[in-house]
Predict the structure.
Amino acid sequence: MSGRILFHVQHLLGIGHLRRAAILARAFAAAGHDVVLTSGGMPAPEIDVGGARFVQLKPVRSTDKLFKVLVDEDGIVIDETFKARRAALLVETLRAHRPDILIVELFPFGRRQMRFELLPLVEAARALPNRPRIVSSVRDILVQSPKPERVAEMVDLFERWFDDVMVHGDPAFIPFARTFPEHARLAARTHHTGYVIGGLPGATTFFPSPPDGQGPQAAPREKVPEGRMRGFASAVAATASEIDAVAGRASIRRPVGTFAPAGTRAIGDAPHPALRATFSPPAGGEGNDSAPASAPVGTGEVIVSAGGGAVGGPLLRAALEARALTRLANRTWRILCGTNLPAAEVETLARMAARAGPNVIVEPARRDFTTLLANATLSISQGGYNTVIETLSVADRAVIAPYSGGLETEQGLRADLLAERGAFQVVAEDSLSPATLAAAIERAMDGPSIRSFPRVDANGLARTMALIDGWLADRAG
């Protein structure tokens, strides 16, 4: 049974939330649903929404890691007029699409600073004649609030406006209760889906056992019924012209919303602007010099990444400096620069790579990232949801340097749990240096392969699809 789905996501610093939403939107559209994904963050050209239709609101971002000051793409602090127009566009999009299911990323368990548009959105959804099911979509770990009144506010907003919450994690690894103390009040409407990942070269996702070795095994992999895999083209439904009209209306110096059809740009389509003039790959092609010329890309390499890159510069620079201190100095090191890595950081990395010699590659983030991980000797990364689960899924060995600036607790907690189980080596952000990173690399190389651990539940895509199917069937019945 096909249905109409409106999915709203807001990223303020990294792009992890948008990336997960895009994976889900692609799957919904491929299964024959009419999907509109609205994004309120900075454009991320590497994000591929497949057959879903995409509405880019006039973007909002945070000025720093505390998320207290919000600005537009020109760095101007957003005012009440801006907020009112954004809220109006979201509500217009809702009314034009008339969704059966409205999914809101993170809210009310986060994005409190976006209440100016999210509350009008859910209020308008509730007021529709045939109101949609309203679902919150969250990752495995919430940023923990030190204020009990904030947690009470989350519960109140959820009970007032939402029907369900999907937790895209494995409760045997990190239960929702770990970072949300009032979980029991929402238990009947909480659905753990397993981790959501996309584009894996294989289906192996490993679960690092606790120290006593009693880690759980993954449930059997679920499949979306083949009869519903109708291809991306089916997602472009009759309401497209309505969404086009909505997206082109209100403006604040420039259009508030712009519509992009199916088939948006993907990772690697164009080089980072700062790389065009400062970097050329070494002669003789890519990859590890010690690997055969015909070996798959990434074979034997060290892959260094930092997600979207907004706060990744220190890690990428430390990795390049640590290279010479490790047993892997003669391997190819591939430095992946996310879309949001500042141009000055990219230029610095390119100069460092040029000094290091031909076995260092600095390039934009790639859509074959999981293939690189699967073929690499070692991964070095931050500790975001997507990268960690992809690393657990296919990588051999890994070092994590979690971002923990401002109010962020998510990456540090996830990294600590993995370190307890022995799967990853971890370098805390406040102790990150070439020397500490090199020492962690040596420990990782001496330790067990990630592939030797039992599995984690990474069937989140299939289980989310099953939930959507069930909710649509309930609505039809």
Observations:
- The chain is about 30% helix and 15% strand.
- Confidence is low (pLDDT under 50) at residues 202-287.
- The first strand starts at residue 4 and ends at 9.
- The CA atoms of residues 90 and 365 lie 30 Å apart.
